[in-house]
Design goal:
The chain is an alpha+beta fold and 478 residues long. Helices cover 16% and strands 36% of the residues. It is built from nine helices and 28 strands. Strands 4, 5, 6, 8, 10 and 14 form a six-stranded mixed beta sheet that branches. A six-stranded mixed beta sheet has the order 15-13-17-22-19-20. Strands 16-24-23-18-21 form a five-stranded mixed beta sheet. Strand 2 and strand 3 form a beta hairpin. Helix 8 crosses helix 9. The radius of gyration is 27 Å and the shape is globular. It starts with a strand and ends in a 10-residue tail after the last helix.
């Protein structure tokens, strides 16, 4: 039997009480929490402390995707719950507060806890109540926490998870940037992107068929203005968790190789890793240096989840180019199979004369088949409910300048095409002004579409407006 007298832990041995550990002289600190994608600052102290952690449970309605809301059950008012950072050897005094507006009792199971239920039994808390327990952070590593109130799967599926980092006693090696990324699934009565408030579907959860697989609680949480950032030459550390409740994540960053991966959040480190598995209820720590500028894309490489269910994030890297590490396209060859001569031309040469509309259509067909057809299909019909059609598409044909802007700058969020709502992410396309003009001239004059030719000068003008931060409007006619 154990009891606590202040912070002097007494243990019953041989019929008497003896002091197991005197913590009265230990410093007492309050944990600073990090809300995704932000991370609490590294711990600089080199002695253990009594660390106070307060976490509030709230049941809140919030955004799951553009035009889609969901009732989340949360730690700290966010999904995922905030990242907690303590030091190996610390004693954590944990208080869980269940807001009076909650409809259900909740608790917390921290995988960093050595003890029954990971703290779940000690933290079972009714609405309007608080519970406190303590534990010693014995094992270093990155650990998941989640609600473990029955039905456990439903509490996790509604958003109740996060990560706690137990730093090694001597700290982690310093890096320039740290971010917090948690993948999870949502099971809704409506299909992906269906508008309005979406309730939880137990049937889909039992079948393990999520409508959404996302990073940090919602579609688009880490794209556009919400993308994480770095500069060329910096080192980056990602603390990656998987709240599940069901799927294993194949975590990958397009355009990078992980210099080091702390496998499953522990001490074992692999090097030069392309994709790492993160189990449901597990974690990984990945580290890499960014050498060239551009947009790196964070994905679950179970790839349909990324492009059809939402598990897509971005890291925008700024700084000077290194053409030795990555040159970009250097030339564009005409490929002639079966040993015929290959004609080589410089990549994207400036045309000696303005191409005719027919010539642009032919050149644009090549660009379309290289970059566009996988999503929008060879016949321009798109994929129902996923990628919008380009054939006889009112949204496309209404504003050519907007179309140029989308190709150059990408598009996210809800749009309506031919009276059907779509909600996907289109990443910016790395095309020259001439290529953009050609592919749009082809698309806007195929499959029943009719429009005048788009000129490279039109594209250059839109690109200049984007770089200057200006808007776009209409150009050309039908």
């Amino acid at each position: 039997m154990k009891k606590q007298a202040g912070w002097m832990v007494m243990v019953a041995l041989a019929g008497g009480l003896v002091v197991a550990d005197d913590m009265t002289a230990w410093p007492r600190v309050t944990a600073e929490l990090g809300f995704a994608p932000n991370v609490p600052p590294p711990i600089t102290r080199r002695e253990p402390a009594v660390v106070k952690v307060d976490l509030e449970v709230r049941e809140l309605e919030g955004r799951l995707a553009d035009g889609v809301t969901y009732t989340f059950w949360t730690f700290g008012g966010t999904v995922p719950g905030p990242m907690i950072r303590v030091r190996e050897g610390d004693v954590v005094e944990f208080s869980l507060h269940n807001h009076p507006s909650s409809k259900l009792p909740h608790n917390i199971d921290l995988h960093a806890v050595t003890g029954p239920g990971g703290g779940a039994a000690a933290s079972f808390t009714a609405p309007g109540h608080s519970s406190t327990f303590s534990f010693k952070a014995i094992n270093r590593g990155l650990y998941v926490y989640h609600c473990a109130t029955a039905p456990v799967g439903m509490h996790i599926a509604n958003g109740m998870y996060g990560c706690i980092l137990v730093e090694p006693a001597d700290g982690l090696p310093p890096v320039d940037r740290e971010y917090y990324v948690v993948q999870s699934e949502f099971y809704t009565t409506g299909r992906y992107g269906e508008q309005g408030h979406q309730p939880f579907s137990m049937e889909k959860a039992l079948d393990e068929k999520p409508d959404y697989v996302v990073f940090n609680g919602s579609v688009g949480s880490m794209v556009g203005d919400r993308a994480i950032k770095a500069n060329v030459g910096e080192t980056v550390r990602l603390f990656v968790g998987n709240g599940g409740p069901n799927l294993i994540s194949s975590f990958h960053v397009i355009g990078e190789i992980f210099d080091q991966v702390h496998v499953e959040g522990g001490d074992l480190r692999n090097q030069n890793v392309q994709t790492t598995l993160v189990p449901a209820g597990g974690s990984a720590i990945v580290e890499f240096k960014v050498e060239v500028p551009g947009t790196l894309v964070l994905v679950d490489h179970s790839i349909f989840r990324t492009f059809n269910k939402g598990s897509l994030g971005m890291m925008k890297v700024e700084g000077p180019e290194d053409l030795v590490i990555y040159s970009g396209k250097q030339r564009d060859d005409i490929y002639q199979p079966e040993g015929q001569a290959t004609v080589t031309t410089p990549a994207a040469p400036a045309p000696e004369r303005e191409l005719t509309k027919e010539e642009r259509i032919e050149a644009g067909k090549i660009v379309y088949n290289q970059t566009c057809f996988a999503c929008h299909q060879a016949n321009g019909q798109g994929l129902p409910g996923v990628f919008p059609p380009l054939a006889k598409a009112d949204y496309l044909m209404a504003d050519a300048k907007r179309a140029i802007n989308i190709v150059i700058g990408g598009l996210q969020g809800e749009i309506e095409v031919n009276h059907v709502t779509y909600n996907q992410v289109m990443t910016p396309q790395s095309l020259t002004d001439d290529q953009v003009a050609n592919v749009l001239t082809f698309v806007m004059n195929s499959w029943g579409n009719e429009h005048e030719a788009i000129a490279p000068a039109d594209v250059a003008a839109v690109r200049a407006e984007i770089e200057a931060g200006g808007g776009v409007g209409e150009v050309g006619g039908h």
